[in-house]
């Protein structure tokens, strides 16, 4: 019921915003994860993600989006992520630049990054994934694809929703780490970030392009299948280094 309510709210918000103009409908945020010149900023942390399978039609469709973004004429505004980085976050870990507001309850806020990374790693080595793979996600309808930097997904049905929500609850418990958006987290694959604010005309054109690219993706690869979640370290948004695969212990 919660997922259906969320979808109704997003559709209503999108329709109202579109009535006011594309620039108001799009969600555009200049990211601190990139410098004002478009170069990658140092933004370190850890996370639990599923990389998109490079052998899948999903990846091929995302690769075509990457090519379109590189030819979009918007590289003075957006930082396009490399295809090797494409992933869906299962559970957000520690983002060290945000440690003053969000941090595990059993760790001192001045603990260094290496210690925190190893602390999580030690806990996750004994963690039982406890669910059947793959995770099956579907892209939201194109009218709900209003984030100009990603493609939004949801579980394909209630059973998949319970599976992934239960996993997230168990991870929050074992890691003593529950973020404010834990229950409302929006699953996504990030394509690009903004490092400079667009003009209204640029945003209108980019919104149209994003809608076209999202529609093409949905037509080609509406269902995204993901295998074992990976515990990763990162220094920025270009590379996510796998440290551990979460697995079912009874296999």
Write up what this structure looks like:
This protein has six helices and ten strands; from the N terminus they run ααβαββαββαββαβββ. By secondary structure, it is an alpha+beta fold. The chain has a single domain (26-245), classed as Cyclic Phosphodiesterase, Chain: A. The strands form three sheets. It has a four-stranded antiparallel beta sheet with strand order 3-1-9-10, with helices on one face. A four-stranded antiparallel beta sheet has the order 6-5-4-8. α3 (57-70) runs antiparallel to α6. The longest helix has 21 residues, at 200-220. It is globular and about 50 Å long. The model is unreliable at 1-25 (pLDDT under 50).
Offer a quick outline of the entry.
The protein has 251 residues and is an alpha+beta fold. It has one domain (26-245): Cyclic phosphodiesterase (Cyclic Phosphodiesterase, Chain: A), CATH 3.90.1140.10. The chain is built from 6 helices and 10 strands.
Number of domains: 1
Q: What is the mean pLDDT?
A: 89
**Helix-strand topology string:** HHEHEEHEEHEEHEEE
Whole-Å distance between the termini?
A: 33 Å
CATH class: Alpha Beta
Estimate what percentage of residues fall within beta strands.
Answer: 15-25%
| Number of E-type strands | 10
Number of contiguous helices: 6
* Largest sheet strand order: 3-1-9-10
Pfam family, one: 2H-phosphodiest
Signal peptide: 1-25
Domain DUF1868: 33-146
Organism: Telluria antibiotica
């Amino acid at each position: 019921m919660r997922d259906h309510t969320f979808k109704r709210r997003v559709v209503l918000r999108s329709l109202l915003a579109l009535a006011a103009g594309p620039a108001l409908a799009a969600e555009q945020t200049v990211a601190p994860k990139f410098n004002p010149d478009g170069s990658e900023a140092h933004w370190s942390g850890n996370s639990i993600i599923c990389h998109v399978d490079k052998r899948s039609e999903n990846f091929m469709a995302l690769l075509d989006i990457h090519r379109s973004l590189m030819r979009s004429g918007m590289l003075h505004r957006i930082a396009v992520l490399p295809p090797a980085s494409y992933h869906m976050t299962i559970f957000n870990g520690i983002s060290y630049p945000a440690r003053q507001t969000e941090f595990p309850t059993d760790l001192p806020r001045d603990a260094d990054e290496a210690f925190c990374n190893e602390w999580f790693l030690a806990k996750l080595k004994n963690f039982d994934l406890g669910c059947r793979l793959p995770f099956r996600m579907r892209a939201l309808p194109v009218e709900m694809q209003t984030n100009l930097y990603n493609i939004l997904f949801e579980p394909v049905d209630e059973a998949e929703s319970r599976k992934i929500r239960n996993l997230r609850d168990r991870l929050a418990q074992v890691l003593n780490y529950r973020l404010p958006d834990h229950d409302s987290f929006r699953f996504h694959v990030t394509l690009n970030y903004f490092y400079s604010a667009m003009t209204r005309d640029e945003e209108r054109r980019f919104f149209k392009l994003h809608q076209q690219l999202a529609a093409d993706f949905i037509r080609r690869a509406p269902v995204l299948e993901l295998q074992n979640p990976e515990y990763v370290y990162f220094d920025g948004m270009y590379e996510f280094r796998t440290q551990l695969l979460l697995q079912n212990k009874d296999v």
